[in-house]
Structures
1.
Amino acid sequence: MRTGVYPGTFDPITLGHMDIIRRGAKLVDRLVIGVTTNPSKSPMFSVEERIEMVRREVDGEAGHIDVVPFDSLLMTFAERQGASVIVRGLRAVADFEYEYQMAGMNQQLNDRIETVFLMADVSLQPIASRLVKEIAIYGGDIGKFVTPAVAQDVVARVERLGRKGD
C-alpha cells in the first residue's frame, strides 16, 4: 500500500488545499493529512479545531484519507505513517523556492521518501490561508476561497476575537 503525507497547518483549510487533497488522493492508496503547528505562524484555530475542520471537509472525498496531528519533523512523521511520498502544493514561483529547499533537506534526512509537487489549479493559485484570515478580519467576503462551513467557522472566530476596521 502506497501512503502519502500532505502536511500543513490548514489554518483554515482552503479550496486550494482541497484541490491538492483530491488530486493527491488519486496518487496514493492512503493519503495522510498531517495537521501541524508552525512556530512561525500565529494560528487562528487550535490544532484540535483544525483537525476537526479538515476531517469535516474531507468526509465523503474519494480515496482513503486520514487526518492526523503531528508535532515533529515532517520526515519523522512520514516514517511513522509508513509514507513513501510527501505531497506538496505549489501556487507560485515563491512557493517553489521554499519547497525546493525543504525537499532537498528532507531528502538528506530520508532519501526513501520522495516529494511530489502538485500545481494548484489556476483559479485557486492566489489563495493562501494567511490572506483568507486577513480578509475575514477586515470584514471581507471569503466565500470564494473556502467552503461555506469553513467560512462560517472563520467569521465566527473573527467575531469572537473582534473584527478590525469596525
Note: The domain at 3-122 is CATH 3.40.50.620 (Rossmann fold).
2.
Amino acid sequence: MKGKQDNLFHYALEEARIGSREGGIPIGSVLTRNGKIIGKGHNMRVQKNDPTAHAEIECLRNSGRIGTYKGTVLYSTLMPCYLCAGAVVQFGIRKVIVGESRNFSGAMEFMQSHGIEVIDLDSAECIEIMRMFILNHPDLWYEDIGRK
C-alpha cells in the first residue's frame, strides 16, 4: 500500500541522516503513539559493531519499557527486514510506515500476514539515500542484509 508522508516521518529521516554522518548505514526509525514520539533510533551496526543494532531495534531499545504497544506506529526509512519485522510482530505494533522498499523489499508480506498495516511512502528521498549508500558502500550493505 502506497501512502502520503505525514509530519512524523521526517524524524525517522533525520535519524537516517545522523547514522550516515556517524559513518553508519543511513536507516532511521521512530516509534510514536497519538502523534507523540516515544523513541527514536538509527542503524548502529557499524558504530556498535553489533549485527543486531538495526534502526528499528535501536528505536525500540531507546523507547524503553512502555508497557503496551497498543496504538503505536513505527516509522522506518526502509522496509524492515525479518529481524525487525519479528520485533514488530512480537510486540504487537499494528502499523508500520516506511520510506521505501525499492532498494530492499524486506518483510512486508510477513508483517501483513500477521495483521500489520504496512504503508510504503515510496519516498524519492529515501530511495536516493539508500541507492547512493549501496553504490558507495556495497560491502557494508550486503553484510547488513546477510548477503555478503
Note: The first strand starts at residue 28 and ends at 33.
3.
Amino acid sequence: MERMHDMGKLDLDEMLAVAIDEARTGLAEGGVPVGAALFDIRGNLLGRGRNRRVQEDDPAVHGETDAFRRAGRQKNYRETIMVTTLAPCWFCSGLIRQFRIGRVIVGESRNFAGGVEWLREAGVAVTDLDSTQCVEMMRGFIEARPDIWNEDIGEEPP
C-alpha cells in the first residue's frame, strides 16, 4: 500500500499526482483525461482509476467510480479522501454522497464545476487545488474532442 504523507501531514500535491498520472494514461489511451484516487485518512492509497468510458465502451466508468471500485469494499468511507483531477460530475458526486466519503480534493473546477457546491452543502470537505496542470490538460482535451467531452458530461453536442 502506497503512503502519501509529510511528517504526519497529508501531501495533497503527491496525492493529486497519482490522479494526474491516471488522467495522462487515460488520455494516451484515447479517453477522457480524468484520473482519481481514493485514500484513507492517513494517506494510504486504497485505489486509483481513470475515466475509461471510451476505452471500455462503458458510460459508468468515470475516474472516481473506477478508483472507488478498485479500492474494494471498505467498512466505512467517512474517513476516506477522493482525489480527482476534475470536479466530480453529478454521477460521481452522488457516489461520494451515497457512501459518505468525507473529503474530496479537486485538481480543478474551472473547466467543469460539477457537483462541488452540492457536495459542500452536504457537509463534504472539498478542497479545490486549482492545478494549472489539470486545467490545461482538460482544456486541451475539450478543445480537441468536444464530441466526447459533451457525451461524457451528458450534454448535447454543440
Note: Strands lie at 35-40, 45-50, 80-84, 103-106, 125-128.
